[in-house]
């Protein structure tokens, strides 16, 4: 599965965004745990207004910073930039074993992880075996100096999201005590499920195991409990976890899932919905469904979430079943990006790359500030909040980076690892049982192997139904031909009654009946024509060099960082002598006089290639008042990396009357421009030779909410 070449630009942009966020933390906040991106300083407990429980984990541990310099290339910082001691140890040990780097490493991170694990164990000293929700790492739980130990309740996800890390610690260190306690906590939650509905509640008493809150869903309070049952099976190979997950999953699909919605119900009476809104944490669930192989509801729910982001720019912390804002805060949560990554991995559908592109652009427009990225206090107003949680660095950029990366571009085989809920990597080699000999997806039901590799349109058919576009079949056949190469095709009558021969002639394609072309032949060729595409592209001589041009997007959020390679024209304004740039209009076919010239006048116009000649389009758009034209290739998937640049030429006659600048973009580069226009409506660009590319605008400020 390969990312289209036209999306490579986003991979580099994500690295730049990570550098901006992480660099801001190091410059303004270190050694504090978190960055306050509006104040440009670190958040230190006791020095800022208390936010309640959320601040109790702060202790100047440098949670956001990598705890160990692994001496790896910059992109490897994605693999562990929080307190992921085990993930960092796994990476260090991997490179040490490869014999090229890290030969000095002596498991220091593993020793730190084991020490931390022993400090956490007193939390499990309860009657039930469910852990306390808080622990003082110096004094434990019950020591008077700990100032905790009075808590009686914990959330299901809080108690059920330790098995991956604790089991990994046990198997890496050889001390089974950690995995033992994590398994016992899962056993308690499983045994306390509602036996008739097979659902669990949201909050449970840690001493007697009684449910305190009996509402059941897949979002906040429960989410990662389900996630860890499935991933524990993948990581550890124990079928007990898979059996439990499947029983829970069947209950979820029976009572909670009402595609594309995921509701909350009462665990004892699951036909009763307990609220009319959903929370943003459930956005992880389509990704979990992908791991199980249940693709249809995953696609449906993900698409619902994407529509919510289109309406509100980000996922509100909570939103109604009618997609209205219930709680407008957005903390830069990564769950939607996570599910987007999994769906792209499973389907190979480039639609999910465009979703990822939207996430990147919205972060830059609506969350980027001079000192990092700021959470949104209310998506309805766009006001910022002075916080950049550490999960934003640990998860968001990692999933986006992987989304736009091919396997060959990664320093590790990503399929050999399982992501924890904080996006740290643990190796599946930890399994004590024989791992499956084939891809996990192969044996899931329905199998993505059958759904996607043999039917790549399946995901789209779920989203919006297949739309058969057979009107342009003949056009696609014609324009897929190289110049000076003849092909034989059989042409039916066109829909409007105009014979296909005349229709294709109007597109600049010359045709000759094969009977005439093969005079003297006894073979009957009625209705079959020899077809030749009139050359619109310059066949450059060896001594004639095509000067690469660019389309540089300079308005926010692009600020010159997005640069698209373009081909020049042999007619129109000579851009090697003067650059040109102004806002663009929406794309036109432009094969006839344009009536609505108000939107075109004074703008660079976009024109889709096909149906008529470049010169004809240029004349019509120039007459309508366009100040330039960017032509976009109609051949899906074409890009400047795989296709040689060329110069557009005229229609055989004089083109002296065409005086506006003209450039040509292949399909991939053109799609980036079209997506930018759809998102931002007006985009300012520069058209100029590549050698005169302008420096990026590096100064950033908070952009007004539109």
TrEMBL record:
Pfam families per the record?
Glyco_hydro_47, PA
Give the family per the record.
Answer: Belongs to the glycosyl hydrolase 47 family.
Swiss-Prot/TrEMBL keywords:
Calcium, Endoplasmic reticulum, Glycoprotein, Glycosidase, Hydrolase, Metal-binding, Unfolded protein response
Localization terms from the record: Endoplasmic reticulum
Q: Which residues bind Ca(2+)?
A: 421
- Is this entry keyworded Hydrolase? yes
The organism's place on the tree of life at top rank: Eukaryota
What is the protein name stated in its UniProt record?
alpha-1,2-Mannosidase
Specify the PA domain's residue ranges. Answer: 589-672
């Amino acid at each position: 599965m390969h990312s289209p070449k036209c999306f490579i630009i986003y991979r580099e942009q994500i690295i730049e965004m990570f550098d901006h966020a992480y660099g801001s933390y190091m410059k303004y906040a270190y050694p504090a745990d978190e960055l306050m991106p509006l104040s440009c300083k670190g958040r230190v407990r006791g020095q800022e207004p208390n936010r309640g429980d959320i601040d109790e984990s702060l202790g100047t541990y440098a949670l956001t910073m990598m705890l160990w310099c692994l001496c790896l290339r910059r992109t490897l910082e994605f693999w562990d930039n929080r307190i992921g001691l085990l993930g960092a140890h796994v990476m260090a040990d991997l490179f040490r074993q490869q014999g090229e780097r890290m030969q000095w490493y002596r498991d220091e991170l593993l020793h730190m992880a084991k020490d931390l694990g022993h400090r956490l164990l007193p939390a499990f000293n309860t009657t039930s075996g469910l852990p306390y929700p808080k622990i003082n790492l110096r004094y434990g739980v019950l020591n008077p100096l700990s100032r905790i130990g009075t808590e009686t309740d914990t959330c299901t996800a809080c108690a059920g999201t330790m098995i991956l890390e604790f089991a990994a610690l046990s198997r890496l260190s050889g001390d089974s005590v950690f995995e033992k306690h994590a398994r016992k906590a899962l056993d308690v939650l499983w045994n306390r499920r509602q036996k008739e509905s097979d659902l669990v509640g949201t909050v449970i008493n840690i001493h007697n195991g009684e449910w305190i809150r009996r509402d059941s869903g897949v979002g906040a309070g429960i989410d990662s409990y389900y996630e860890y049952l499935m991933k524990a099976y993948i990581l550890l190979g124990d079928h007990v976890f898979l059996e439990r997950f499947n029983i829970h999953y069947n209950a979820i699909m029976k009572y909670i899932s009402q595609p594309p919605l995921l509701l909350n119900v009462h665990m004892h009476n699951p036909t009763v919905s307990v609220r009319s809104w959903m929370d943003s944490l459930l956005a992880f669930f389509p990704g979990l469904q992908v791991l199980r192989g249940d693709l249809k509801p995953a696609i449906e729910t993900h698409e619902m979430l994407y529509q919510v982001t289109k309406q509100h720019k980000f996922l509100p912390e909570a939103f109604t079943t009618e997609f209205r804002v219930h709680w407008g805060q957005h903390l830069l949560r990564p769950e939607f990006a996570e599910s987007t990554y999994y769906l792209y991995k499973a389907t190979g559908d480039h639609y999910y790359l465009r979703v990822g592109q939207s996430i990147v652009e919205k972060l830059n427009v609506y969350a980027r500030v001079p000192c990092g990225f700021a959470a949104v206090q209310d998506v309805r107003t766009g006001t910022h909040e002075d916080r950049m949680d550490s999960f934003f660095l640990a998860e968001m950029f990692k999933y986006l980076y992987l989304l736009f990366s091919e396997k060959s571009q990664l320093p590790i085989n990503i399929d050999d690892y399982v992501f924890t809920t904080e996006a740290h990597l643990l190796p599946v080699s930890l399994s004590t049982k024989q791992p499956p000999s084939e891809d996990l997806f192969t044996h899931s039901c329905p199998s993505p192997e059958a759904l996607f590799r043999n039917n790549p349109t399946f995901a789209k058919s779920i989203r919006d139904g297949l739309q058969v576009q057979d009107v342009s079949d003949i056009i696609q056949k014609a324009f897929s031909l190289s110049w000076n190469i003849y092909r034989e095709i059989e042409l039916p009558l066109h829909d409007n009654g105009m014979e296909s021969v005349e229709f294709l002639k109007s597109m600049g394609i010359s045709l000759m009946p094969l009977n005439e072309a093969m005079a003297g032949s006894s073979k009957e060729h009625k209705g079959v024509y020899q077809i030749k595409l009139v050359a619109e592209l310059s066949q450059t001589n060896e001594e004639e060099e095509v000067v690469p041009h660019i389309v540089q997007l300079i308005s926010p959020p692009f600020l010159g960082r997005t640069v698209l390679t373009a081909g020049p024209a042999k007619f129109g304004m000579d851009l090697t002598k003067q650059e040109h740039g102004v806002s663009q209009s929406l794309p036109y076919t432009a094969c006839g006089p344009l009536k609505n010239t108000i939107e075109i006048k004074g703008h660079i116009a976009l024109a889709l290639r096909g149906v008529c000649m470049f010169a004809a389009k240029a004349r019509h758009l120039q007459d309508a008042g366009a100040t330039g034209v960017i032509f976009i290739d109609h051949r899906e998937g074409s890009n400047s990396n795989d296709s040689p640049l060329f110069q557009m030429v005229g229609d055989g006659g004089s083109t002296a009357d065409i005086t506006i600048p003209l450039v040509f973009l292949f399909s991939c580069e053109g799609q980036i421009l079209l997506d930018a226009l759809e998102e931002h409506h007006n985009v300012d660009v520069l058209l100029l030779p590549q050698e005169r590319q302008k420096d990026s605008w590096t100064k950033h400020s908070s952009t007004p909410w539109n």
